[in-house]
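Is this the right way to post structure tokens for a design question? Let me know if I should format differently. Anyway, here goes:
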């Protein structure tokens, strides 16, 4: 949507230039820039053709707010062709044949500042029709601490009152993650409040794991005081977690209003569901998600059951069929490598602790060859537990991290400590 806004800006500039071919380019750029509240310049050689279907090609285009250090838009090349009827209409008609942008670079913060500086529009935004569509190659969108690289957009045709279909490819870079994507997009109409559907491949890539997904998403375009985004977003994905020899298939779904404002991407309130086999739990939850300089996730919900691939719980915990309410709180890098807080409960048994996801995934990968206990820190309280035929009551278990290994001795095995009443036999 924001790349499209940049394309519309370029189209307004180009339309003004072609309609006055006798003017010097620098004067035209200055005149159009004043009308838009922007400083516009073109550092490369520019060309236009008036025979047949008029055409304009601008190279090295830069658009910025006066006095701003950061341009809101750069483009290596902009191509536009439009019929004489549009030129003669002097803006009353916005019928365009085709728009092409090579290596456009859009700065979201600068774009948002410019949009907020503009006076309110007396009417709805007018979009051009593109009889031969539009193409974007090697595009880039810059956010706060993240970017979308190698953007490619292909729109066969665009009409303001008709459904819009196209393809969208690129790669989100949010260190330490990369997220390449290739999506087919359908927009009910290019206007706020209209439905948008996306379907295709998304791949989350970290240093030592990856998460390929086949994704379907839908929502309604939103533009308001709380930012840009999608209302009633619904996202579903078939995914596989792959790390070393581990290959865990699962499906998940997300729902909520998606917003981007002031460098912050958020999904709140958030609904989430996860389904899988083996070590993947079945869970449903609600909470909040946000990403700016770091990822923030708060999720509360319940596990339907204790996964069979996890270590067997001692009686009576293992015999209970009660769901397990949980609360998860994380703030840190986007690959979940920082420490997360977790509260997990079954009946009257409660665990309050912390964990690091990469360590837990390594424990899952180790299977029977690994430690009996997952790599967690925290406290577990249970009124009753049976161990090797002994019944312990009023049990409190504290689990601590292993001390770091030394050259002279192997790392000790994690051992919980238990405070309990004398056993009953």
């Amino acid at each position: 949507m924001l790349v499209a806004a940049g394309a519309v800006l370029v189209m307004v500039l180009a339309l003004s230039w072609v309609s006055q071919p006798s003017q010097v380019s620098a004067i035209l750029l200055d005149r159009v820039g004043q009308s838009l509240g922007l400083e516009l310049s073109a550092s490369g050689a520019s060309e236009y053709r008036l025979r047949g279907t008029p055409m304009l090609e601008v190279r090295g285009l830069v658009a910025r707010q006066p006095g701003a250090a950061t341009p809101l838009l750069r483009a290596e090349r902009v191509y536009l062709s439009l019929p004489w009827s549009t030129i003669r209409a002097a803006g009353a008609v916005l019928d365009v044949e085709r728009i092409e942008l090579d290596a456009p670079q859009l700065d979201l913060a600068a774009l948002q500042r410019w949009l907020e500086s503009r006076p309110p529009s007396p009417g709805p935004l007018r979009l051009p029709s593109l009889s031969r569509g539009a193409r974007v190659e090697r595009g880039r969108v810059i956010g706060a601490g993240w970017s979308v690289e190698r953007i490619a957009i292909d729109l066969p045709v665009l009409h303001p009152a008709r459904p819009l279909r196209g393809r969208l490819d690129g790669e989100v870079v949010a260190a330490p993650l990369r997220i390449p994507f290739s999506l087919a997009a359908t927009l009910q109409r290019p206007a706020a409040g209209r439905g948008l559907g996306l379907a295709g491949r998304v791949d989350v890539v970290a240093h030592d794991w990856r998460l390929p997904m086949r994704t379907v998403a839908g929502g309604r375009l939103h533009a308001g005081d709380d930012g840009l985004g999608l209302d009633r977003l619904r996202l579903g994905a078939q995914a596989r977690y792959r790390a070393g020899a581990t290959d865990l298939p699962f499906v998940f779904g997300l729902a909520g209003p998606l917003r981007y404002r002031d460098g912050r991407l958020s999904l709140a309130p958030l609904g989430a569901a996860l389904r899988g086999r083996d070590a993947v739990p079945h869970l449903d939850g609600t909470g909040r998600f946000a990403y700016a300089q770091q990822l923030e996730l708060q999720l509360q919900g319940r596990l339907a059951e204790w996964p069979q691939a996890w270590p067997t719980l001692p009686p009576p915990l293992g015999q209970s069929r009660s769901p397990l309410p949980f609360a998860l709180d994380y703030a840190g890098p986007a690959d979940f490598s920082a420490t997360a807080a977790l509260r997990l409960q079954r009946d009257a048994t409660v665990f309050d602790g912390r964990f690091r996801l990469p360590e837990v995934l390594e424990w899952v990968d180790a299977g029977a060859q690994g430690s009996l206990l997952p790599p967690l820190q925290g406290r577990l309280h249970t009124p009753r537990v049976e161990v090797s035929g002994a019944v312990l009551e009023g049990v409190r278990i504290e689990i601590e991290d292993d001390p770091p290994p030394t050259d002279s001795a192997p790392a000790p095995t994690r051992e919980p400590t238990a405070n309990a009443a004398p056993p009953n036999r």
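Format looks fine. Someone answered above. Worth noting: The radius of gyration is 28 Å. Helices lie at 2-18, 25-36, 84-89, 108-117, 357-366.
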